Amino acid sequence: MALLQIAEPGQSTVPHEHRLAAGIDLGTTNSLIASVQSGKPNTIADQQGRDILPSIVSYQDSSSEQAILVGDEAKALSVSDAKNTITSAKRLIGRSLSDIQSKYPSLPYQFCGDENHPEIVTRQGNINPVQVSAEILKTLNQRAEQALGGELTGVVVTVPAHFDDAQRQSTKDAAKLAGVNVLRLLNEPTAAAVAYGLDSGQEGVIAIFDLGGGTFDISVLRLNKGVFEVLATGGDSALGGDDFDVALVDYLVEQAALTRPLSPSLERQLMQQACLAKESLTYQDTAEVSLALDNAQTWSTSLTTATLNELIASLVKKTLRACRRSLKDASINIEEVIEVVMVGGSTRVPLVRAEVEKFFNKKPLTSIDPDKVVAIGAAIQADILAGNKPESDVLLLDVTPLSLGLETMGGLVEKVIPRNTTIPVAKAQEFTTFKDGQTAMAVHVLQGERELVDDCRSLARFELRGIPAMTAGAAHIRVTFKVDADGLLSVTAMEKSSGVESSIEVKPSFGLDDGKIAQMLKDSMNNAKADIDARMLKEQQVEAARVIESIQAAIVQDKHLLDANEVANIEQVIKSLADISQGESANEIETAIEKLDQATAIFAERRMDSSINKALSGQSVEKL
Amino acid sequence: MRAILDYFQLFNIEQSFNVELSYLSQAYQTLQKSVHPDRFAHASSQEQLLAVQKSAEINDAYQTLKEPIKRAEYLLNLRGVEMPNEQHSFSDTSFLMRQMELREMLDDVKTSNDVDAALAEAQRELSIEHQQHFDLMSAQINENSAASNALACDNLRKLKFYQKLNIEIERIEDSLFDD
Questions:
Q1: pTM for this structure?
Q2: Which chain B residues contact residue A616 at CB under 8 A?
Q3: In CATH, what is the architecture of B93-177?
């Protein structure tokens, strides 16, 4: 007798074709795309054989053949056309104008737009950082589709673990704008851990020290039987190799007795020279710097490793402080850490390596390519999420990097979800009214560790209205915070006695609203209306096929959870969706998908409960 | 349909204050493997939504059972012992006096000549007292009579005072990191 095959819950039982999926490391300085092919994750190179794409976008004359240049072609123009060539857009994404200007005072751009939606003036008009990132994602996506020979089902895009909600949301918006389906936002150090862990087969506690061009993350994880459990993460989303360069630039400006403001191209030249000098100081003791000044003279000097170390010492110290805190948050002693994995180009700096070794009392692992490991890890996760590895045991349990809270009386922050809480998470807190007869309440959502509202990042404000008038302190207002598996927050508020409710997808203060994204999408298409309609129809058809396939697989697997009537009913709704999706109306398909979702709600719930019950039943402690 | 499970049932363990942490952590990972949203990235949006909800519930259950103070509160709650809210007056004046002393001790730490040493000493003192109340509470919870549960509840409230002092200690430590 043939044995029955039983699949993992949520996974299809019918063998299906390999779905194309990829992982994208959207870096401050460089970006990469990788994919799992024939079971092995590899980075994908362009036609010239380059896999690293500099994260630089240059906006040229719209009439020219290549109006938008991305990567090395853009990099070639970064000094001569600094104003129209945007580098390190990741440092600007999801930030306010004043934030950008106080952190990076000498950027060679002209900013416009309002405080919460800064834009850069280019010869192609005003460009926001989300659009710049979208160009990079588009380029990588096209590269992968060409190399893999088909459209991608979806991608996993990595973000610094320490990115706040606005920065994450903006990254997702950029993907949307690029027409890329995001399967998951994945934290960079977690991606690196996956690549490292699966490759080495190590189990135990590891630390990932990830110092990139613009961001720093430290994550402490426990690896156990395919589970990557992040115990704590810390870092600084505005600390990276670029800051080493800035420190060097400031030093050079002082040595050359230059007075700011300098011309955009001289600023860019200084950054490039500083970066080159820093790189050569990783393998030699001195480096020469030579600048073409605006007055056509040349100024040169020689830099030593000792000078560089002195200039960056305080920045390196900052990274170690974050390490100490994360270990403490994870309740892990330094001796328990079996391996420290170095990720990101800036971990090549000798002082960084030496200090990390001293801190962990262990030689950090530098054998895996620090530039590629994040993209590789993202590719592995993308392959799993796309459903290509139903037998996979890999599970990532990640955390929120920063505490989430609400403003209370006196400008104080009440934390609702503390940092390093495992996601997804839903937490509710009750508040009450302050005055007699109060009928509205302002909800101010904040992110950060400090006690005062002014010291935290303001994520959103909304109002709960229509609270029945009661004496002060009598109303019970329940505010619920939910963070999904992408680390994105949504907040709802409800007055319990009356049921008055108000909710918000937290994405307003910074970044773009959906209307603006739709508009930008339209603008980016040549034959706007026809193109966008065709694309929406295609998207809904793909979605319909996906939903039908997953529900049919569920029925095959769990038919016993339904009675004959229920099966007949679901099959009826499936058939109707299948028919409608042959048609031309995206809206009708969408409605039919919703109908099918509703028709299968109870089935989905039963399946979920049954898999929870099954997971632990009949298992003895030893067997687990 | 099954009844709504309490957290102990969810983890397939008996309702008790004594929890085998290594089992708990293994069971947690097993449960997450069956419901985590990553397992449903290709499923219908209905299932994706449910997966987020269930996975969040399991996270909450795990955190509650893992952390002894939360576990105690949850267990007492299941037994029908309601914790009085924070504003509720506290009659044990000698305990309150002691708390004031400890607060003053922490204030002194901040201005001490050797903050690190003073902090370590304060931590040691707090942890001894914390342990005393904790041991009392454990025994009372395990006895599980109406009277002992009420006493456990009292000790649980006291332990929360110590938790607050510990948060204060962490603040002082954090401020040391910032120099």
A1: 0.86
A2: 11-12, 27, 30-31
A3: Up-down Bundle (1.20)
